[in-house]
Amino acid sequence: MQWPPPWRRSPLVSATPPPGPTTGLLCPRRVSEAGDSSTEGARTGHSHYVTPAESAMERRSQPFPSLRPASPTNAPAHGRGSDCTAKEPPLANVCRQNYGAAQDPVEPAGRRSASHVTGSSLGKAEVACGRRWRWAELVANSSWSPAGRATEMKVKMLSRNPDNYVRETKLDLQRVPRNYDPALHPFEVPREYVRALNATKLERVFAKPFLASLDGHRDGVNCLAKHPENLATVLSGACDGEVRIWNLTQRNCIRTIQAHEGFVRGICTRFCGTSFFTVGDDKTVKQWKMDGPGCGDEEEPLHTILGKTVYTGIDHHWKEAVFATCGQQVDIWDEQRTNPICSMTWGFDSISSVKFNPIETFLLGSCASDRNIVLYDMRQATPLKKVILDMRTNTICWNPMEAFIFTAANEDYNLYTFDMRALDTPVMVHMDHVSAVLDVDYSPTGKEFVSASFDKSIRIFPVDKSRSREVYHTKRMQHVICVKWTSDSKYIMCGSDEMNIRLWKANASEKLGVLTSREKAAKDYNQKLKEKFQHYPHIKRIARHRHLPKSIYSQIQEQRIMKEARRRKEVNRIKHSKPGSVPIVSEKKKHVVAVVK
Amino acid sequence: MNVNQVAENLALSHQEELVDLPKNYPLSENEDEGDRDGERKHQKLLEAISSLDGKNRRKLAERSEASLKVSEFSVSSEGSGEKLVLADLLEPVKTSSSLATIKKQLNRVKSKKVVELPLNKEKIEQIHREVAFSKTSQVLSKWDPIILKNQQAEQLVFPLGKEQPAIAPIEHALSGWKARTPLEQEIFNLLHKNKQPVTDPLLTPMEKASLQAMSLEEAKMHRAELQRARALQSYYEAKARKEKKIKSKKYHRVVKKGKAKKALKEFEQLQKVNPTVALEEMEKIENARMMERMSLKHQNSGKWAKSKAIMAKYDLEARQAMQEQLAQNKELTQKLQVASESEEEEGGTEVEELLVPHVVNEVQMNVDGPNPWMFRSCTSDTKEAATQEDPEQLPELAAHEVSASGAEERPVAEEEILLREFEERQSLRKRSELNQDAEPASSQETKDSSSQEVLSELRALSQKLKEKHQSRKQKASSEGTVPQVQREEPAPEEAEPLLLQRSERVQTLEELEELGKEDCFQNKELPRPVLEGQQSERTPNNRPDAPKEKKEKEQLINLQNFLTTQSPSMRSLAVPTIIEELEDEEERDQRQMIKEAFAGDDVIRDFLKEKREAVEASKPKDVDLTLPGWGEWGGVGLKPSAKKRRQFLIKAPEGPPRKDKNLPNVIISEKRNIHAAAHQVQVLPYPFTHHRQFERTIQTPIGSTWNTQRAFQKLTTPKVVTKPGHIIKPIKAEDVGYQSSSRSDLPVIQRNPKRITTRHNKEEKLAGCSVSRL
């Protein structure tokens, strides 16, 4: 890196006129700019002052100029080509600021430098980038003679065009004069690296995901439901049969219903948000109005259905007045009737959860305690396929953006993302939990999901990664039974054994509230920097660092050892047996026992 | 009852027995008419008789059919005990052949095999499931492209569906509006009067017209342009008029020539710059050529030409003038080189040849005219003459020529084309040489070979043309048998040169191989001289008549000969030693070969050089801080003094000794910096396939320090954008442009209303009671 740049050095050092391209003395190519209209002035300014940048670019060995999306060479052209001249700082202006006296013909310093070269070059001097023939032309023009000078001399007026520095409206960007010459901004990689490092550190510093805890339940929270139309409303069912409706903005309970005797096993809202359904251990399905009863009225369900067996889960159709319950079999109910429209079974074990597909709404998925996940088609009233895993699946959740993808929360500490068309191999195995995963819910963007575990933590997994990006826990949070991602994809709620519902930020270090545009830009930039440098060891280490409670930490260590031992054993077995006799099974296939048609 | 009757009855009954007639056979009329009593008695008697013999009779007694009582004259319904209805009488007409269908059915049932057992329930269910699954997965796979698109999207903004603001357009509001107050009515009246449009483009006709009209500036520009064009036109007109007035023929000629030249030049340039336009130009030229060909302008057919033709035999000038004219014609009718030569042209040339007066051609023979065409014909004439000189050759060649010219003039034309091209490319001198070569040829072989050579040369010159030849020949073959026969002759001629060359090559290669082989060396001793002799025989044969190119080709062979001739001289010594020597030679040769192959790459020296460079590069450099002109007199060419330089030169401290100092064959790079390594990526991260890709992404700055505002914004766009406070609904088919299934998701059973209604009431009751119980 040369400093000062050569074109700034030369006039000071050598008294001779610039002989070649190396001493690129900057004299104005065109001087008569004052008369031009504002936009044209800006444009000619562009064409005029591109040259130093270009010459600088040439001098500077650029490793991969092609990949620079908006390298400074392109920048002026960009400005020139489109209509953005008004918004972007015109380069003429820019250069005036940055190069200072040596360049601007208008300013006295410029005149001095000019006279330094030719004596009278103010008029016609064109020595940009030092072309020899230009120089020869100048000599030939005989502007050396004082007489000629006198005739050709043009007196330039100082001109400041407000168009160059005043913005048109208040909403416009401020014109910050900038020179994008890369020579002036060296060390871009190290500087960005440091910025990325700082951004990562700040992210960790500001990572305070816990927002609020909603207390009021008198037993463990067994199930949660979101209001489909209202972001602030959340419903929860507890193990003592109590259902509470919460307002998240006020962080208080707005309604309490003693809905069932025994557990509230499942709760779901109607797609329109006017009512909700609960199922409980008392073998009933109840429909409730979302709004509370009038003053003096008793809390009464809209409908009650008495069943023969216990219902363990419920889910409402996304478009129609139909809901599904599960227990001994999957029943599909019309809201108006007390007998199921159809009931589908496959096997005899109790089914723990049933979920409607949010996109192709005739599809259902359920998981039973005989370790299988069964898919149903409601239209044809038939089960479709069954996959049997190593251990029991507690619940499943469909991806709201990808119709055939669902994730299953398994007892074997893992989560499995399946493509329902190819059940024999999960798309991804997500592992990080150290105990059974009890619940899972997708972010409404379909890019991530959150899982609640018996190990007293919740984790956020990207859909396409096998490891979690985030783990949330607090000292007082016990086994997390249910978890939900809010419909605006900003928050996460989890209900746990110790009677609390906790509200978390989905993005731990995100600043809540309205961001100014600058904040937003900084946030985006930092995010991109973190992404760009995420593979660098220091940054990676900082970004990955999480504090964990001792129990989880030690569990992780233990399990790591166990896993390593298992792996070693497998390797040894392969090594010491006849080649080909021990099949090498991939991690994804290991956990799938069978697919039943 | 009389005996007669009884006897009769008996006889009858007997008869019945025999013939097995129906029991109550109709009796004679008088008896029937006699009295009922009699009949009853008769019946009794019958019964009595029938009871006499065993079982058979009893059966008969049971039979009571209406048909028995049917008489010709009256209808009785006694037997059936029912009243007869008219419809009963009509019925049998219809159902006469009903039995056949029953039989058919029976046959069908008989022919059928045993019906298979129905599948067990589980199997059926499985089949149902499989079918349903395949159907569902088919339905789901329509989402594949969308999911892929979303995954690859630069940015996803949630909620996905664009929420349209619920503002009704003004037209709708207006259409639903009813003017109630008088003010409103007045306003509406006004609007309607002025034809104010209510629907979408809210412009009055006037406004539309004004929009369509030109702006003032545009109009001004347009006018100025028109003015300029008019001025230019008048100027050019004046110029042309002036030029037209010039009477000098010479001037016009010069101008014409100049124009032609210019046009040619322009055309050439166009060809380079804009081929499509050039093609158009070419077409124009082609047109001009056609015109020329059609006209008799330069065909020596005019009055002037005829007069000259008379003089031509004696007057050189006249001859030349005619030649000139013809040359001009030739020039004008010459096809441009770019256009591929087609059959058309041949025809043209033939016609041309016909058009040219024969006399002139004859005369032309000796003259070196500018017209190559004329010259060609004359040479061919000479050739013919040469061939005719040969007595042996005559019959065959004559036959050739007869077949060639007699059947069709195609091959001649071909040759002509070939020759013409040849002539175009070769100088006159060469041609004359060829002729000279051809003349002394005595044997037919040489003649053949020479003609082959000519042909081969020509082929080499016009490879494109060859294909056309063949196609043409095929056409000719289709035309008739004679041309086919004639075709068969030249075809091998064409094929031969290639084959010949190949065989020669093979020979030389064999020889080379023989050289290489040590084992069969001695065996080959004998045949070689013979071969050499053959070759030497051949070469002189070939040499004189072969043209230059041929000679060049054969130089290779000669070289081989030279090599082979060397070895016998060696062989004159004792055999074993020779072999050894030869082996040595072989080795040496090989070594030489390897040396030659790897000439210029001295690996060791290169390595040493590399190492030296590496050492140099790793040495810390001195820092020169001298500022020329500082504290001294300035000026051109002044250098800072040695003292100053010494003073400001900071010597770099010597680094630690290199690790590979004592290892001559190793370069140990010392570039790796342990302190920096902690900050460097050790393993190539996943999506990248090459470290350079990764480096590039890192090297591209994204900050606003290095990028313009816009680029910065573009570079830092987040992948997923969500709006706070907006509910993100699951993706819908309508969002993506698919049609959502109009069918409801309810199961099929539910959509069948009949079955439900009955159940429904029960359920209602049940529900009622359940609620009441609560």
From TrEMBL, chain A:
<feature type="domain" description="Sof1-like protein">
    <location>
        <begin position="506"/>
        <end position="592"/>
    </location>
</feature>
<dbReference type="Pfam" id="PF04158">
    <property type="entry name" value="Sof1"/>
</dbReference>
<comment type="subunit">
    <text>Part of the small subunit (SSU) processome, composed of more than 70 proteins and the RNA chaperone small nucleolar RNA (snoRNA) U3. Component of the DCX(DCAF13) E3 ubiquitin ligase complex, at least composed of CUL4 (CUL4A or CUL4B), DDB1, DCAF13 and RBX1. Interacts (via WD40 domain) with DDB1. Interacts with ESR1 and LATS1.</text>
</comment>
<dbReference type="GO" id="GO:0000462">
    <property type="term" value="P:maturation of SSU-rRNA from tricistronic rRNA transcript (SSU-rRNA, 5.8S rRNA, LSU-rRNA)"/>
</dbReference>
<keyword id="KW-0687">Ribonucleoprotein</keyword>
<comment type="pathway">
    <text>Protein modification; protein ubiquitination.</text>
</comment>
<feature type="region of interest" description="Disordered">
    <location>
        <begin position="1"/>
        <end position="89"/>
    </location>
</feature>
<dbReference type="GO" id="GO:1990756">
    <property type="term" value="F:ubiquitin-like ligase-substrate adaptor activity"/>
</dbReference>
<dbReference type="InterPro" id="IPR051733">
    <property type="entry name" value="WD_repeat_DCAF13/WDSOF1"/>
</dbReference>
<keyword id="KW-0853">WD repeat</keyword>
<keyword id="KW-0833">Ubl conjugation pathway</keyword>
<dbReference type="GO" id="GO:0016567">
    <property type="term" value="P:protein ubiquitination"/>
</dbReference>
<keyword id="KW-0677">Repeat</keyword>
<dbReference type="InterPro" id="IPR036322">
    <property type="entry name" value="WD40_repeat_dom_sf"/>
</dbReference>
<dbReference type="InterPro" id="IPR007287">
    <property type="entry name" value="Sof1"/>
</dbReference>
<dbReference type="GO" id="GO:0080008">
    <property type="term" value="C:Cul4-RING E3 ubiquitin ligase complex"/>
</dbReference>
<keyword id="KW-0539">Nucleus</keyword>
<comment type="similarity">
    <text>Belongs to the WD repeat DCAF13/WDSOF1 family.</text>
</comment>
<dbReference type="Pfam" id="PF00400">
    <property type="entry name" value="WD40"/>
</dbReference>
<dbReference type="InterPro" id="IPR019775">
    <property type="entry name" value="WD40_repeat_CS"/>
</dbReference>
<dbReference type="InterPro" id="IPR001680">
    <property type="entry name" value="WD40_rpt"/>
</dbReference>
<dbReference type="GO" id="GO:0007292">
    <property type="term" value="P:female gamete generation"/>
</dbReference>
From TrEMBL, chain B:
<feature type="region of interest" description="Disordered">
    <location>
        <begin position="22"/>
        <end position="48"/>
    </location>
</feature>
<dbReference type="GO" id="GO:0006364">
    <property type="term" value="P:rRNA processing"/>
</dbReference>
<dbReference type="Pfam" id="PF04615">
    <property type="entry name" value="Utp14"/>
</dbReference>
<keyword id="KW-0539">Nucleus</keyword>
<feature type="compositionally biased region" description="Polar residues">
    <location>
        <begin position="533"/>
        <end position="542"/>
    </location>
</feature>
<keyword id="KW-0597">Phosphoprotein</keyword>
<feature type="compositionally biased region" description="Basic and acidic residues">
    <location>
        <begin position="502"/>
        <end position="527"/>
    </location>
</feature>
<feature type="compositionally biased region" description="Basic and acidic residues">
    <location>
        <begin position="425"/>
        <end position="434"/>
    </location>
</feature>
<dbReference type="InterPro" id="IPR006709">
    <property type="entry name" value="SSU_processome_Utp14"/>
</dbReference>
<comment type="similarity">
    <text>Belongs to the UTP14 family.</text>
</comment>
<feature type="compositionally biased region" description="Basic residues">
    <location>
        <begin position="466"/>
        <end position="475"/>
    </location>
</feature>
<dbReference type="GO" id="GO:0005829">
    <property type="term" value="C:cytosol"/>
</dbReference>
<feature type="region of interest" description="Disordered">
    <location>
        <begin position="425"/>
        <end position="553"/>
    </location>
</feature>
<dbReference type="GO" id="GO:0032040">
    <property type="term" value="C:small-subunit processome"/>
</dbReference>
<protein>
    <submittedName>
        <fullName>UTP14C small subunit processome component</fullName>
    </submittedName>
</protein>
